[in-house]
Request: fold
Amino acid sequence: MPAVKSYAEINEKIKNRQAVVITAEEVKIYIREQGIARTVEKIDVVTTGTFGAMCSSGAFLNFGHADPPLKMEKVTLNGVPAYGGIAAADVYIGATERAHKSKEHYSGAHVIEDLVAGKTVVLKARGKPTDCYPARSVTTEITLTDLNQAVLLNPRNAYQRYNAAANSTQRTIYTYMGRLLPRLGNITYSGAGELSPLNNDPDFLTIGLGTHIFLGGGPGFIIGSGTQHNPETGFATLMVKGDLKTMRAEFLRGAYVHGYGSTLFVGIGVPIPILNDEIARAVAFTDDEIKVNIVDYGIPRLKRPVLKAGVSYRELKSGFVEIDGKAVRTGSISSQFMARKIAAELKDWIGRGEFLLTEAVEPVTKNGLAMPLVVRKPEKLSVENSPARKKEKIITIDHNRCIHCELCIAQCPVQAIYKDENGDIAIDRAKCTLCRVCTKICSVGCLD
Reply:
């Protein structure tokens, strides 16, 4: 559908503090009272919000180089392991990574919150000494301001919706959906329903690569669909990034779910520009129309039995849902209060002219995959591919791996390596002394 307004027009109104901005909850009431056409005419932006446990989260951190330099390979932050296989001074710390047993309730999520809160964190790093990185280890205290870069980059956030959980077994179980009482003693659910970003733009009419968002209390961006993105079934996800130095601990909370493990509560708000009737109809969706299944988490399988299908968020938020004639109490593991706060704060940012909209470079894809892991027995490593295979008596060249950097030509001590008439690397066997300098300097392993 052609746009009635443009991003440029709305941004100009935002700059002049003339934009009309309301939250996703407010727009449902407005549309019910005023209709779609008037909503498009009068409303410029609708703000959304969600605040829940988003396990698939983490941060890239750059510490800068120590003196003497150290190639950081084994890294911990407050006892939490961080992945150091990136470069000498970069790590990625995952939200669910646990600290050592003495601090089992502390995780990468708590490290991220502590950094954002301005607290001191202990960095310990070890590495194998090399000529350019001679140091073996370093232990120091750091704060967020000490870091060159600190980028929150979350592979899977802001689930569009999530199945509710109950437990039909005879014992209490503890899951990422919280404590589930036996014999259908309670129901837990997640998500902000009609406030949630992806429920207000389920066809990705405005949400996509480069969309400017509220992330963790600061500005951020959508960088694509998240992992396990499956919009065909109503389970779309987002991949997001932002600068930790602009965020606030109020909207990034390290958490420990008893019996399950750690997670990071992340606050996300997405502005929806009301460009035309189609977008206005999308933001009109209410909790009555957003439905999920209640599934039995007491069955320890990937595909769990459905205890009740098509339950609306309105029913879940009411406090009770009936299953087989029994009124079962419901409870949310995410925060509606914080979701409202995020939508309201984003509304305020835009209203004050401090937050402009961006048009997506491309929309989030409407196709996705959430396939199960196929478990296969690994084949034994063949002799041909085995690292322990017998060394050849000549230097061989794997032309498919060669990147033509020509460092081998430059550093061969007897000038035995050259480029042939086809432009390929070749070796003069008469000159070659098998000194193996070339095999040591070939970083991609095409000389052996």
Remarks:
- The chain has a mean pLDDT of 94.
